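Board notes (copied after class):
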Amino acid sequence: MAADIPSTKQEPAAPLPLPPRLTFTASAYLWATGLDGRLRTLPPLPATKVSIGFDQVMKNFDGGIMGAGEVRYDRYLLFVDLIASKISPNKTIYPAGYPAGVKVDSAAFIGLAAAGYRLIDDSAYSIDAFAGVRGFAMKNTLRVQLTPATLKLSESEQWADGVVGARLKVNLAPSLYATTIGFIGKGGSRYEWDVFGGLGYAFTDSISAFAGYRAMKVSYRNGDFIYNALQQGPVLGLNARF
């Protein structure tokens, strides 16, 4: 008879899903990049083919900032990536047997801002789509010191491209993940593409490190100014999420 009496015991209620919250991720990285391509950045000097390794870039490196940031709310994303650098190679030449100092200051700023949406948000992997704009600003100055006079040539260019992109992240283990992100676009440039792939390791829920390889190709021409170059090399960085 006891078995026929309805039970008054209640099953535990399923936990309520956590409401979405705003998160911010800041990244600092070092891109050990070389440069290959065809450049004419100081008209009326002729266009020339260049191939500069990372060791040569660092030898003349005057400073720079490389970093990225991401704001996320639910499935909505805002992603930014900034690269600012200055290179100043020096050389002494001997025209007509007299020494002359030659210095080239090359400053570059590349900034990307893109809005995104998380198409797939699974415990095993995620896929994001992006659309935005990338801006370029470059200034090159050539100084030739011939005592007591100095010859100076300077040229600057600014342009912007519309870009679209995607990112894939795969969780390989509780603290290990693989990720790749890429963008393509055009506008001021004839075309551009930018891709990164690598591995990351999460030390805590807030701090992680990543390493991989990045390549960026930009083909731009405006009158006598030519910048058709490929930058590529390994990347090492840190993420902090708040």
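Comment from the instructor: Residues 54-59 form the longest helix (6 residues). The first strand starts at residue 22 and ends at 31.
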